[in-house]
Amino acid sequence: MKQPMIDVASARAGAPTMATAFLSIRGVSRSFPAQHGGAPTVALQATDLTVAENDFITILGPSGCGKSTLLRIVAGLDHQTSGTVLLEDRAISGPGADRGMVFQSYTLFPWLTVRDNVCFGLRERGMPRAQQLEIADAYLAKVGLRGFEHHFPKQLSGGMQQRTAIARALANDPRMLLMDEPFGALDHQTRELMQELLLGIWEAERKTVLFVTHDIDEAVFMGSRVVVMSARPGRIKLDRKVPLGHPRHYSVKTSPEFAALKAELTEQVRVEVRAAQETAAAAH
What tens digit of pLDDT does each residue of 123-134 get? Predict the structure, then answer.
């Protein structure tokens, strides 16, 4: 039976309460000053989101709706104009080892080997070299890069570079992974393999994940909840629980439950993409 849409304006079935929230985003907005006077640009309207520990939240929405802005605020790489962001009841005021970030662009250090890229954060914390290598090699094995420890980033494919970036983020043992379209630059086949890889790691390690994507298939397959944001100025307009169990095999993409949720989300995102286009046209 098709599940009803969950509107965040009403009670969110399945969403964590404030009392059990691992991450709590309360009334968070972000505005940028105008370039030549005039009114500031509102990138993100006052937004609320609660995330339980070990949850995997995928975030959809049209380009420019504030998805990445919200993620950067949680990462401590940007600051909200209003509202609060609490991680385990502590306000986020800047980057921290409790949050690992993986970007769409490849952010490895080109002068370091694969192994030393993964060791970087551990070295910065003053961990003994032997322990660094033990942890790095364990995560390189998990992401399928055993045997590539001594390669440099320029010797790797895009997918292998992102595997290294994921291993580096996980090696620091963060409480939360923040992922900004990490597979967006990959070809279709590599992207699907990376989805399965990351989902398998999450099922084993149960990190809390916020995952921004433009790909609706990816959002449904990866997420335990899917959040849809409106056209700019962005806000969370929809919060849906994904009715698919774990472990989750790629064949689930052919199931009626997957197809039904994908169809609903496609329509919701389409409405917002059209709204964004109309706003852009009116501005010109």
Answer: 999 999 999 999
